[in-house]
Amino acid sequence: MFRKLKIKFVMTNIVSITMILLIIFFGIYLSIKGFLKFQADIILYTIANEERLNSNFDSGLVRFFYIKVDTSNEIIGYLMNINISKEDMESFKEKAMEKGVTNGKIANGNFKFKFLKIPKAYGYIIVFLDYSVEEKMFKPLISISTFIVLLSVVLVFSTSLFLASRAIKPIKTSWEKQMAFIADASHELRTPLAVVNSNLEIVMENENETIESQMKWLNNIQSELERMKKLVDDLLFLARADAEDEMPKEYFDLSSLVHKIFDEFTPLCQKKDIEFLLDTKDNIIFYGNEFRIKQLITILLDNAIKYTGEEGKVELKLESHTSTVQLSVSDTGEGIPKEHIDKIFDRFYRVDKSRSRNHGGAGLGLAIAKCIVNEHKGNINVSSVVSEGTKFTVSLPYKAPQN
């Protein structure tokens, strides 16, 4: 598919540029040809009317001769600015008179002339202007133009091939990521569906049993349905983020929000015997989406607590600076191996898939966190040491409220 797209891109460029170059050079050719014809006509009319070469033209560059003939078509005078025999001059006179037109072209051997015949009181004056130089000029002009067009086509082909590879690369990467995303999403949905289906089969096979006796299987079904609901919600969030829908923003008390989240997570930390610390300044009014920021902090805290063992420590910190608000979540948990740091924000990426599944994760949390940070025009960084802990730092642009 991408090979065909690349070929189509290259061919479109070549055809387009070739057509443009042909139009340009054909236009130049016609313009030069028209100008030379116009100039030749002016010279012919000037000589015919004045019976001499006007001082505006260089006699060294204009090669001409004229013949005066009487009413009997006999030559009664001539002026020559070109080396030509009387026999040839007589021949050209006869051809001009035979043509029956006032102007045209005559060729005889090595001579090529434009002629103009104008009636006079004594008969006619026939002016012959050598146009062999112009004829010779057109041939190299066509040759040079053809060479330039062909060279341009080769250059355009090379450039288009290079640019096509560069242009298609992000599309190809995006396509591959989309395919991987669909495959991973299908896989994640298939597992809970299989569990729900198997538990339902057990319940249906024991249709005479009471609900209470089959509560274990029903609880499994409910648990997997909740997991599916969360997964679908996460997928919808990422889909909306990809669609770049405008996110509503307003001023809210970020300090108060952090305190509320701290209170909500404190029981969970106490249950795991984790020391939970809060370091924040009061009255930090932030411009953004309160629900999304809460979701961001929740994801980071949930990950920190999930991968921190008993008697560990988790710290939530909020600082404000002149132009940024900095939020950090640090823990003393398992840490992340260095080779995984650059990939942890990818969708469905899990450092340890088996352990993540045991924790109920699908590998979407940090991808959502990064989307939220991007929506707020901020950035998120992570530093981690295996067996020592991890620290996520979020920097968001700060805009002070107007009084």
Describe the protein.
With 403 residues, the protein is an alpha+beta fold. The chain has two domains: 2-138, Beta-Lactamase (2-Layer Sandwich); 246-397, Histidine kinase-like ATPase, C-terminal domain (Heat Shock Protein 90), CATH 3.30.565.10. It has helices at residues 2-50, 86-99, 132-205, 215-242, 254-271, 290-306, 353-358, 365-375; strands at 64-69, 75-80, 103-108, 111-120, 123-130, 250-253, 275-280, 285-288, 313-320, 324-331, 379-385, 389-397. Strand 11 (379-385) and strand 12 form a beta hairpin. It is elongated, with a radius of gyration of 44 Å. The two termini are 57 Å apart. The mean pLDDT is 82.
Count of helix runs:
8
Count of domain modules: 2
CATH C-level category of the largest domain: Alpha Beta
The average pLDDT value, as a whole number, equals 82
Cα radius of gyration in angstroms: 44 Å
Poorly predicted segments: none
End-to-end Cα distance, whole Å, is 57 Å
Name given to the CATH homologous superfamily of the largest domain: Histidine kinase-like ATPase, C-terminal domain
Strand content: 15-25%
Largest sheet: 5 strands, antiparallel
Order of helices and strands: HEEHEEEHHEHEEHEEHHEE
Kindly identify the CATH topology of the largest domain.
Answer: Heat Shock Protein 90
What would the principal axes of the Cα set say about the shape? elongated
Kindly state the number of beta strands: 12
Structural category: alpha+beta
**Fraction of residues in helix:** 40-55%
CATH architecture of the largest domain: 2-Layer Sandwich
Order of the strands making up the biggest sheet: 2-1-5-4-3
Keywords: Kinase, Membrane, Phosphoprotein, Transferase, Transmembrane, Transmembrane helix, Two-component regulatory system
GO molecular function, one term: phosphorelay sensor kinase activity
Protein name: histidine kinase
Catalytic activity: ATP + protein L-histidine = ADP + protein N-phospho-L-histidine
